Amino acid sequence: xxxxxxxxxxxxxxxxxxxxxxxxxxxxxxxxxxxxxxxxxxxxxxxxxxxxxxxxxxxxxxxxxxxxxxxxxxxxxxxxxxxxxxxxxxxxxxxxxxxxxxxxxxxxxxxxxxxxxxxxxxxxxxxxxxxxxxxxxxxxxxxxxxxxxxxxxxxxxxxxxxxxxxxxxxxxxxxxxxxxxxxxxxxxxxxxxxxxxxxxxxxxxxxxxxxxxx
Length: 214
Prior knowledge:
Blueprint: H1 14-44, E1 53-55, E2 58-59, H2 64-102, H3 112-115, H4 126-138, H5 146-165, H6 170-179, H7 182-213
Antiparallel strand pairs: 1-2
């Protein structure tokens, strides 16, 4: 998959698109469940014994609600990883097809399909740029779907706000839910919104390419 060799043949994307949509639904539901548990923690209030992490390496016994949040959080992390794998697999396929349809090299070399998400500063625009280029190649002259901007804007809000909030352990998130759940819920809502918008992005770009392929 080298950008300097001949463009690959058109590849079927229906299956990859279905997997990406299913993974986005799963990830959105997982983050929504995380938000629900944070609301439950905030409503229940912090126990008199204090936060789970007592400092100096000491941890108290977790309550049933806190234990459940640990499970929900772990499942949410697993769903997020699965979503990333499925989305990138779909993105790689539609990128290859876009190159074949346009007959031109993509603006961003293939390593950016992965590195674009993790390289600081560059990750603020490169993934959206890759998606925009794919749409442009499949539907030249057509306006970029609004879902792309919604998806990317919500993703940036969720990732930037959540980066500091979820940087610690799950016990840290639990303590924050007790004292100030509002920012956690903002990050969660943005991620859920990005997952929903991402479904429309996958469907829109897949439909454009399928029309060209047929």
